[in-house]
Design brief:
The chain is an alpha/beta fold and 273 residues long. It contains nine helices and seven strands.
């Protein structure tokens, strides 16, 4: 389905990352890929890349740096001369912006969560759209922002902003033949997610809440939905948020399945981490 396609994939940290599953499935479907990494975590990305069917190169990218973004676009242009799609799987919130301290979060931390988790979606697309030559796809990873998740705090606000950025990006890029869509994924276990207060409790209740069931250890269904949006098969879809969560988002009473004995729902995963 993806033979001859060329994709940039961000957000690969470990083999448990959704982005890693996207990279693996993309290669198995015939695509050529490049990954990005940043700072100290780039070594983690390189180790994960070595476990892919065909280990790809890892390019340096601080998504909050205009210089890095410009250098990335130039390097992709030098290597490939064009690009078919990009996965944005980047999110970050400072420790004082999540974990139940919503009312105490300083503006600087809230702004950092917004810039890295939402504004960067536009920034990445802005720099890479010229390489797509009138036909391409931008896909981002999301977590349901229709409700206020306890402990998710300013990351939840950033995800709501990401969904709005997606709609505006679809409006701006559509006339250039470029689509923009998000995947709202159910919780996937990863080293980053396990460090979020209450993640294990939330994840353990998700299979019961989801009509189709849910395997928190298997990011493959999410990865395949991402590849659908990157492929030509989604040529008339843009501005959408597609839920890949076993159907949990559609079922009344899902919160009851996600609360502990104290009756409080807990924090969600950074789905892409």
């Amino acid at each position: 389905m993806l033979a001859g396609k060329r994709f940039l994939i961000t957000g690969v940290l470990t083999r448990k990352s959704i982005a890693f599953a996207v990279a693996r499935e993309a290669q198995l479907a015939g695509a050529e890929i490049l990954l990005t990494g940043f700072g100290r975590t780039r070594r983690m990305t390189e180790r994960a890349a070595a476990r892919l069917p065909e280990p790809p190169d890892v390019l340096e990218l601080d998504v909050n740096s205009e210089e890095h973004l410009a250098d990335l676009a130039r390097e992709i242009g030098r290597r490939w001369s064009g690009l078919d799609g990009v996965l944005h799987a980047i999110a970050f919130a400072p420790a004082d912006a999540i974990g139940g301290r919503f009312m105490e979060t300083p503006a600087e931390s809230a702004l950092e969560a917004f810039r890295t988790s939402a504004y960067s979606y536009q920034a990445l697309a802005r720099h890479l759209a010229p390489l797509m030559d009138g036909r391409g796809s931008v896909v981002g990873l999301d977590f349901d922002a229709s409700v206020a998740w306890p402990s998710y705090d300013w990351m939840g606000v950033a995800k709501a902003a990401l969904e709005s950025v997606n709609r505006y990006l679809a409006r701006e890029l559509g006339p250039r033949g470029i689509r923009s869509n998000l995947i709202s994924a159910g919780p996937i276990s990863s080293p980053a997610a396990s460090g979020i207060d209450g993640f294990e409790q939330l994840a353990s209740g998700w299979p019961e809440a989801a009509p189709l069931g849910w395997d928190t250890e298997d990011p493959t269904p999410v990865a395949r939905a991402v590849l659908f949006l990157l492929s030509d098969w989604s040529e008339a879809i843009s501005g959408e948020v597609i839920h890949v969560d076993g159907g949990a988002h559609a079922v009344a009473g899902r919160a009851e399945h996600q609360t502990g004995s104290n009756g409080r729902a807990r924090a969600s995963s950074l789905a892409q981490s």
